[in-house]
Specification:
It is a single chain. This protein is of the alpha+beta class. The chain has one domain: Lambda Exonuclease, Chain A, CATH 3.90.320. The protein is about 45% helix and about 20% strand. It contains 12 helices and 11 strands. It has helices at about 10-15, 35-40, 50, 60-65, 75-85, 90-95, 110-115, 125-140, 150-155, 195-205, 205-220, 250-275; strands at about 20-25, 30, 95-100, 120-125, 140-145, 145, 155-165, 170-180, 185-190, 230-235, 245. The longest helix is centred in the last third of the chain and has 24 residues, at about 250-275.
């Protein structure tokens, strides 16, 4: 599935033409509840969290990511399908094609079916059953004495917030899975059974940056000095599909804030100089004590 790149003019035209956009209180913020997901994710006019992450490697990696489309992996497509089933079930049939049976890449009928549905997420019937089970586990998971599905029913789901970062003046955007009066919820699929392992992965995957950026966007839109708790609902992809609810703590958000500051300062400096350096290094390799070879045996 190829990605459409939207120009600045197209992005601005949509924002101005949306009847439901809701201006916020600070930082020229605006909430858009009806922006199509495909347009949000393809937009290159305003920076998002996923666009910022390569800056933590180098400005050159950021430039490559801006120009290059990387197709989603099977794991990412599964996560998207789960999101649709939980958050936008009315769009599931539009965006997901289900093969009648078990998919086999060597089968001619499957190959033809895959070609005919190349613009959709491709799954088979066993995967559909798994997705339905995962969606049920999320909906029924207790949180603060109620089912998580109750919170989702009371939330604005898949909403975009555009705002101007106050320090650098960089225009940014986020898309919240669920904006509830009492919390912001983000759904994640994970290979881990335990929350501790998920958190270790979360730092490497820069979910701390996401939690801070999304919380800041919501706080600016609401004009609040204390953003609502940001909660990850992390569901295990394998049975029995455990669901961990992980609230972003103070140090987690602080780490995300430091990452955001690094990204935006690099972006502003590189944009001003039009110099986007890579990770070129001149180093001397030394052995750490724990790496030292010890001869054992004969």
């Amino acid at each position: 599935m190829e990605q459409t790149i939207f120009t600045t003019a197209q992005a601005l035209a949509f924002l101005e033409g949306s009847d439901n956009h809701q201006p916020g209180k600070l930082a020229a913020s605006v909430l858009i509840p009806d922006q199509p997901a495909a347009q949000y994710h393809a937009d290159r006019a305003v920076l998002s969290c996923s666009m910022l992450k390569p800056l933590l490697v180098s400005p050159a990696h950021f430039q490559v990511a801006m120009r290059q489309y990387t197709p989603p992996s099977e794991a990412m497509q599964l996560g998207t399908a789960v999101h649709l089933m939980v958050l936008e079930p009315h769009h599931f049939a539009r965006d997901v094609a289900v093969f009648p049976g078990i998919k086999d890449g060597r089968d001619g009928a499957y190959k033809q079916w895959a070609t005919d549905n190349a613009d959709r997420i491709l799954i088979d019937e066993p995967t559909l059953r798994t997705i339905r089970t995962m969606a049920t586990r999320i909906q029924e998971r207790p949180y603060k004495g109620r089912a998580l599905g109750d919170f989702l029913a009371e939330s604005l789901r898949e909403v975009s917030i555009y705002f101007t970062e106050p320090t650098t003046g960089v225009r940014l955007r986020v898309r919240l899975d669920a904006l509830h009066p009492d919390l912001s919820l983000d759904l994640k699929t994970t290979r881990h059974q335990f929350a501790g392992a998920f958190i270790r992965d979360a730092v490497d995957l820069h979910y701390d940056l996401q939690a801070f950026l999304y919380s800041a966007a919501r706080a600016l839109w609401e004009g609040s000095t204390k953003p609502a708790p940001f909660v990850f609902a992390a569901i295990e992809t394998d049975a029995p599909h455990s669901v961990s609810l992980v609230t972003a703590g103070e140090t987690f958000l602080h780490n995300g804030a430091a990452k955001l500051q690094r990204c935006l300062s690099l972006y502003a400096a590189c944009r001003q100089t039009e110099h986007w350096p890579a990770t070129d290094e001149d180093v001397v390799a030394e052995i750490q004590p724990w790496q030292a070879f010890e001869r054992k045996g004969i």
